[in-house]
Design a protein that fits this description.
By secondary structure, the chain is α+β, with helices and mostly antiparallel strands. The protein has 13 helices and 11 strands. The chain has a 7-stranded mixed sheet with strand order 3-6-7-11-10-9-8, with helices on both faces. A two-stranded antiparallel ribbon has the order 1-2. A two-stranded antiparallel ribbon has the order 4-5. The longest helix has 15 residues.
Length: about 400
C-alpha cells in the first residue's frame, strides 16, 4: 500500500466509517480489504455544502469536528452602518466643561458649546479624617468595660499632687518611683494646697507610725513632699480619689470603675517604652473578692479583645498585696511582653479612707499601646505614637478588624 502525507489519517477515518477491514487470516499475513461496494464521503459533501453557503444540514457537533480537523475556519465579520448625524462636522471642536466668571461677565458663554454633564459618573472622593489605631483599640476597651457593667471615672487632670499619686496609695516618700529619674515634677505651680485634712492625717499616721494592722514605714512623713505637683505617673491616683469619695457615702455600695487616659513617666525610650503613654485602669470594690476574681476578670476582658495568651507573674507593688504582672505573647517580637500590673489594694490604703474592713478592692492598670502593637503587628512603639509616626500607616489601616 502506497503511503502519502494523509495516509494515516485517511486510513483511520476509513476504518472508523466502516469502508475497510483488516483480514488477519489472509495468506502471507494481514491484508486490508474493501468492506463495502460503494462509499459516501459525508465530510466531502459537508465541505461542498459549506462552500456553497448551505449551513442548515450541518449540526454544531459536525462543525466542531471539522474545526478540530482544521478543515474549516470560522470567521466573524462585523458590519457597521455609518451615516451623518445632526452634529456632523468636518472640524474637531473642543467642548467647554466649566462655566467661568469671565464667560458670565463677557457673555461669551452664549455662543460656546458645553459638554453635557454625566450625572452617573463617580465623583472625586473627598478627603476625610482617619482614626488612629490607638483610638480604635481605645474604643474597643471602653466598649468592653461598659458591656461588663463598669462606670467610667473622670480623668481630666494630667497634673496631680504627690499626695493622691503616691501617699494615698501607701507609697513611701523615699520610694525610687518618686525620684526625678522616674517622675516629671511641675515647676509652676510647684505645690498643691487643697486636701481633706482629716484623711491626710490618717495617711500620715499609717506611713510614719503604722495602724490598721500594719507597722507602717517608720519614717518622718513630710507634708511638703505630699504637696508637690507632678505629671501623674498612673491613673491609680484617680482611683484613689474615687474610692475616697465612695468611702464618704453613708452606706457602702459595690462599684466597678474604669478609666483610659494618658500618664507620664521619665522612662528611657526603647521599642516598648515611651515617656508618655495611655493607661487602662480597672477597679472593683465589693465584699469577699479574691485574686481568683481578678484573674478571671482579666481573662474575660482580654478574650473579648482576641488576646488569649496571658501569663501572670508575682510582683511587688507598695499599694497592692498580692500583686501580679500581666504578660501577653507578641507574635511580631516573638516574646512575652508585659502589658499591665494588677493586685489587691492593701488595707493601709483603703482603711484610712473610711471603707469598711470587709470590703476588698481588686485593681489593674494596663497599657493601651502594647495591646495595640500586638493586634496591629507593630514592633516598635515609636512607630505607633510620637513624632516619628508615619501618617501613611494611619491612612492605610483598615476601618475595622474582623478578629476570630
Amino acid at each position: 500500500m502506497k503511503s502519502g502525507p494523509y495516509a494515516k489519517i485517511g486510513f483511520s477515518k476509513a476504518m472508523s466509517a466502516g469502508w475497510l477491514e483488516v483480514n488477519k487470516k489472509a495468506p502471507g499475513g494481514p491484508t486490508v480489504q474493501r468492506k463495502v461496494a460503494s462509499i459516501v464521503d459525508r465530510v466531502q459533501n459537508q465541505l461542498k455544502q459549506l462552500q456553497q453557503g448551505n449551513l442548515s444540514d450541518i449540526t454544531d457537533k459536525e462543525k466542531a469536528e471539522l474545526k478540530k480537523r482544521k478543515l474549516i475556519q470560522e470567521v466573524t465579520v462585523n458590519i457597521f452602518l455609518v451615516w451623518k448625524g445632526s452634529g456632523f462636522t468636518t472640524s474637531v471642536q473642543k467642548l467647554d466643561t466649566d462655566l467661568t466668571p469671565e464667560m458670565i461677565s463677557s457673555g461669551s458663554w452664549k455662543g460656546k458649546p458645553f459638554k453635557a454633564y454625566n450625572f452617573d459618573a463617580m465623583g472625586v472622593p473627598p478627603t476625610a479624617g482617619h482614626l488612629h489605631p490607638l483610638l480604635k483599640v481605645r474604643a474597643e476597651f471602653r466598649q468592653i468595660f461598659l458591656e461588663m457593667g463598669f462606670t467610667e471615672m473622670p480623668t481630666n487632670n494630667y497634673i496631680e499632687s504627690s499626695f493622691w499619686n503616691f501617699d494615698a496609695l501607701f507609697q513611701p516618700q523615699q520610694h525610687p518611683a518618686r525620684d526625678a529619674h522616674d517622675t516629671f515634677f511641675i515647676k509652676d505651680p510647684e505645690f498643691a494646697h487643697e486636701f481633706p485634712m482629716d484623711y491626710l492625717e490618717r495617711v500620715k499616721k499609717v506611713h510614719s507610725e503604722g495602724g490598721y494592722g500594719s507597722q507602717g514605714y517608720k519614717y518622718d512623713w513630710k507634708l511638703s513632699e505630699a504637696k508637690k505637683n507632678i505629671l501623674r505617673t498612673h491613673t491609680t491616683a484617680v482611683s484613689a480619689r474615687m474610692l475616697y469619695k465612695l468611702a464618704q457615702q453613708e452606706k457602702f455600695t459595690p462599684v466597678k470603675y474604669f478609666s483610659i487616659d494618658r500618664v507620664f513617666r521619665n522612662e528611657t525610650l526603647d521599642a516598648t517604652h515611651l515617656a508618655e503613654f495611655h493607661q487602662i485602669e480597672g477597679v472593683v470594690a465589693d465584699y469577699n473578692l479574691s485574686l481568683g476574681h481578678l484573674i478571671g476578670i482579666l481573662h474575660a476582658f482580654f478574650k473579648k479583645l482576641g488576646i488569649e495568651k496571658l501569663r501572670f507573674k508575682p510582683a511587688y507593688n507598695p499599694y497592692t498585696e498580692p500583686s501580679m504582672e500581666v504578660f501577653s505573647y507578641h507574635e511580631g517580637l516573638k516574646k512575652w511582653v508585659e502589658i499591665g500590673n494588677s493586685g489587691v489594694f492593701r488595707p493601709e490604703m483603703l482603711l484610712p479612707m473610711g471603707l469598711p474592713e470587709d470590703v476588698v478592692v481588686i485593681a489593674w492598670g494596663l497599657s493601651l499601646e502594647r495591646p495595640t502593637m500586638i493586634k496591629y503587628g507593630i514592633d516598635n512603639i515609636r512607630d505607633l505614637i510620637g513624632p516619628k509616626v508615619n501618617l501613611q500607616m494611619v491612612y492605610d489601616n483598615p476601618i475595622c478588624r474582623l478578629d476570630k
